[in-house]
Amino acid sequence: MTDITQQWIEKDKKQLHPVYHPKSHANPLVIERGEGVWLYTTDGRKILDGMAGLWNVNAGYGREELAKAAYDQMKQLAFTSNFSGMTSLPSIQLADKLAGFAYEGLNTTFFTSGGSEANDSAFKTARYYWKRKGKPTKYKVIARKGSYHGITLASTFATGLEKYHTMFGPAMDGFVHIPAPNPYRYEGQLKDGETVGQAAARELESAILREGAETIAAFIAEPVMGVGGVIVPPGDYFPLVRQICDKYEILFIADEVITGFGRTGEWFALKHWNVKPDILSFAKAITSGYAQLGGIQISDAIRETMETAADTEAYMHGYTYSGHAMACAVGLKNLEIMENEDYPKRARELGKRLLEGLKSLAEFPFVGDVRGLGLVCGVEIVSDKSTKTTDPAMAMKIFKAAEANGLRSRPLGSTLAFSPPLSINEDEVDEIIRRLGAAMDGIG
Ligand SMILES: Cc1ncc(COP(=O)(O)O)c(C=O)c1O
């Protein structure tokens, strides 16, 4: 560490960072540049980014095409208002490209700057829809325990991880949490002969009946839970969820902020189970992290309710940066890259290699479970395999040892997450396994 870098770190310590605690920011890595899956620090270290930043840099670092798309658009027109009465070509073109791209019948896009804003927009849109349908008492959202939906006030309280609520209560009214279908450690009750998928879907129906369907606007779920520990649901869960939402007239919001744009081996993850949402939240990989962009897509049925709104019923929602011209131009170029390089296929093939490699580490006494779908995987660390007792301290130890070996993962409670750029190659996948294995060896 040069003296100059150390001086900047001391200045940085005066600032606030996301999910900040002074202890968590005592010794930050200062990243100077990136190339492909590799990050380079100011003190000369080279680190394999096994997390693609924050699950988002799908196209890898240092892509000139994306830098050029941003430069060209900034020179011509960086920004124009996208509020009613104005628009820009890149935002029109990206929305047009996205029409029906994720799911048939989701043809309308509303842009935000990221995933939290997308989920807030989804909640407000669900409420708007039910008001327009003459059912204004439908305002609550059912979410799952362990879910992460973002950091704005509403998305914080939609999130099902207590630690995000502790210092920001009282809780916002209108969010109800039910158990998630975690095949390794299901928190709810299993009836005789019931699968985890059936039990978790039954919890949705029970919550609807308990609260009253006439009060519920929407159900929100990540197809594969990310921050909650990379939980891949059993195959029967989402088809049942869709049926229940239809039965009780509840909108299904798919939060595909992590799983969107190829990550799981399909362009969008509910495709694995042939299920379609009413509202889709997306962000992160739409630009591979090269610009701040997110959004929602809504079903044609929701769109139609807006066509007949009275003068007093405008959709009074929008951000200064909705449809940001430069961000949309980067999104368009990034989609072109992801299509040309067939990222869903890469995620399927390289994800299989990653998962198999991680599974080869299951012989370590502290590896309780290894799971994944496409190129998003989790390794759950336990203190006892038979009791499945979680061991976040050991997970943190392995995370630090791996980082010292030049591999960046992400500790999420007792689970280490891996979600590398989809541009990763086979040797680099093997390098993740080698470096993680060496870290575990050093501890084990
Ligand atoms: C599933 C999910 N939803 C929403 C968000 C929030 O997105 P952002 O951080 O862009 O606001 C995240 C962020 O990690 C996420 O993982």
SSE arrangement:
Blueprint: H1 3-12, E1 31-35, E2 38-41, E3 46-49, H2 52-55, H3 64-77, H4 89-98, E4 106-112, H5 115-132, E5 140-144, H6 153-158, E6 175-178, H7 196-211, E7 216-221, H8 237-247, E8 251-255, E9 279-282, E10 294-299, H9 300-307, H10 325-340, H11 343-359, E11 367-372, E12 377-384, E13 389-390, H12 392-404, E14 407-408, E15 410-412, E16 415-418, H13 426-443
Parallel strand pairs: 3-14, 5-6, 5-7, 7-8, 8-9
Antiparallel strand pairs: 1-2, 2-3, 4-10, 9-10, 11-12, 12-13, 12-16, 15-16
Helix pairs in contact: 3-10, 4-10, 7-8, 11-13, 12-13
Pyridoxal-5'-phosphate binds next to helix 5.
What is the radius of gyration?
22 Å
Tally the beta strands: 16
The span between the termini is 29 Å
Can you write the helix and strand succession as a string?
HEEEHHHEHEHEHEHEEEHHHEEEHEEEH
| Largest sheet descriptor | 7 strands, mixed
Q: In the CATH hierarchy, what is the superfamily of the largest domain? A: Type I PLP-dependent aspartate aminotransferase-like (Major domain)
Strand order of the largest sheet: 4-10-9-8-7-5-6
The CATH top-level class label of the largest domain = Alpha Beta
Bound molecules: pyridoxal-5'-phosphate
Model description:
It is a single chain. The chain has 444 residues and is α/β, with parallel strands linked by helices. The protein has 2 domains: 159 residues, Aspartate Aminotransferase, domain 1 (Alpha-Beta Complex); 275 residues, Type I PLP-dependent aspartate aminotransferase-like (Major domain) (Aspartate Aminotransferase, domain 2, 3-Layer(aba) Sandwich), CATH 3.40.640. Helices cover 36% and strands 17% of the residues. The protein contains 13 helices and 16 strands. The protein has a 7-stranded mixed beta sheet, with helices on both faces. Strands 11, 12, 13, 15 and 16 form a 5-stranded antiparallel beta sheet that branches. Strand 11 and strand 12 form a beta hairpin. The protein is globular and about 65 Å long. The relative contact order is 0.15. The mean pLDDT is 97. Pyridoxal-5'-phosphate binds next to helix 5. The site of pyridoxal-5'-phosphate has 17 residues, from helix 5.
